Amino acid sequence: MRYTGPKAKINRRLNAQVYESSGAVRSLERRPYPPGMFTRRGKQSTYALGLAEKQKIKHYYGLSEKQLRRYFERATRMKGNTGELMLLLCERRLDNVIRRAGLAHSRPQARQGIVHCHFKLNGVKLNKPSALVRPGDVITVRERKNLHNMYRDVTETERVEPAGWFNAEPEHLRVIVSGYPMPADVSLPIEVGLVVEFMSR
């Protein structure tokens, strides 16, 4: 199941800003220690470190355990570094691209918009946040005045996260995918080798 509980607690538990809502960010800044009474960060085992890094990926990209396992298994069948390839698959998710292109304040908001068919992929309505984009794909907001007004408000306050593999055109409420992401494009700082070791057990 995808996590739907308090996001501030997850940021504090993982000591990372995996959720971007203002409350969750402020909570980590004010209290940079795990939730609960008399808790502090001691020396962690390799297992605990691997689990924490895996949880960062799940919460950051909004994945269920089953989805992450599917990406991991797909990456193991590809040539190259398994951990990097797994993250690159996550980066290609439609909800992640919409967020990074500045058309949503957060990935949960991007997912909600996709599920409610606010966006089109290559001119076709799509309600699948996990769809993987490819070079040549074009993402647009549906031609409805209320949606255009809503997403223009978002683009006025949200910055585009630069990426070399897609071109964000917020003035046109459009994103054009020009290539595939590279390891340097991954937006989540993480020790992915620990995740691979953990998931290979």
Automatic annotation (TrEMBL):
The keyword Ribosomal protein applies. GO terms for cellular component: small ribosomal subunit. Gene3D superfamilies: Ribosomal Protein S4 Delta 41, Chain A, domain 1 (1.10.1050.10), RNA-binding S4 domain (3.10.290.10). GO terms for molecular function: rRNA binding; structural constituent of ribosome. Residues 2-91 form the Small ribosomal subunit protein uS4 N-terminal domain. Coiled coil: none annotated. Keywords: Ribonucleoprotein, Ribosomal protein, RNA-binding, rRNA-binding. Residues 92-148 form the RNA-binding S4 domain. Pfam families: Ribosomal_S4 (PF00163), S4 (PF01479). Transmembrane segments: none annotated. GO terms for biological process: ribosomal small subunit biogenesis; translation. Belongs to the universal ribosomal protein uS4 family. Part of the 30S ribosomal subunit. Contacts protein S5. The interaction surface between S4 and S5 is involved in control of translational fidelity. One of the primary rRNA binding proteins, it binds directly to 16S rRNA where it nucleates assembly of the body of the 30S subunit. This is Small ribosomal subunit protein uS4. It comes from Kolteria novifilia.
